[in-house]
């Protein structure tokens, strides 16, 4: 609404295939934390292939289900986010889906400041609240760690996790195990022609 009203831009809201964009029209198509929400991600990637120029760039960013934090927190991992997240991707499954849609990945990253650290912080809080659940009165409180003396115990458990996770996630990122998965891809025919 802001883009339409303030900048008077023609903005389409909905799934990509519903927009009926012309073929080979765009230089770049991005799916920034979108693909995991879609019921037919392969269909949408194939539509991105159709509307991208032959030398166009596809950028996909999703949570990394193969990350250290996903393995450590399991069902407590904030980025599972069910039922809003319909699919989850590892580097291998995302690359396989991109290939089925006609793309070749040429660069992968594993760091997004907000998503990586948010996954550790909220996963840590989820674990703490499993150990020391909130009482009925605390659930009414706006304070994240609850209220009363037990609040300080939870906070004392959280602080070491919070300060250590930045280092842990940086190491995970360097080893390709970060909580975020950013992939840059081009059409297979473009990369096979040696243009990449």
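Q: What amino acid sequence fits the structure above?
A:
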């Amino acid at each position: 609404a802001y883009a339409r009203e303030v900048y008077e831009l023609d903005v389409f809201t909905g799934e990509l295939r519903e927009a009926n964009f012309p073929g080979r029209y765009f230089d770049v198509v991005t799916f920034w934390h979108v693909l995991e929400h879609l019921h037919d991600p392969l269909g949408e990637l194939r539509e991105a292939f159709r509307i991208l120029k032959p030398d166009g760039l596809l950028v996909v960013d999703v949570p990394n289900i193969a990350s250290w934090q996903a393995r450590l927190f399991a069902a407590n991992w904030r980025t599972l986010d069910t039922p809003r997240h319909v699919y989850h991707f590892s580097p291998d499954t995302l690359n396989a889906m991109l290939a089925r849609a006609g793309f070749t990945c040429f660069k992968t990253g594993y760091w997004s400041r907000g998503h990586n650290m948010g996954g550790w912080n909220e996963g840590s809080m989820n674990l703490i609240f499993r150990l020391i659940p909130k009482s009925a009165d605390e659930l009414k409180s706006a304070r994240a760690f609850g209220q009363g003396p037990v609040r300080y115990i939870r906070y004392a458990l959280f602080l070491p996790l919070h300060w250590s996770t930045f280092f842990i996630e940086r190491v995970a990122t360097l080893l390709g195990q970060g909580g975020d998965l950013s992939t840059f891809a081009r059409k297979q025919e473009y990369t096979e022609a040696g243009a990449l």
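Q: And what stands out in the fold?
A: The beta strands are 26-32, 52-63, 103-109, 180-187.
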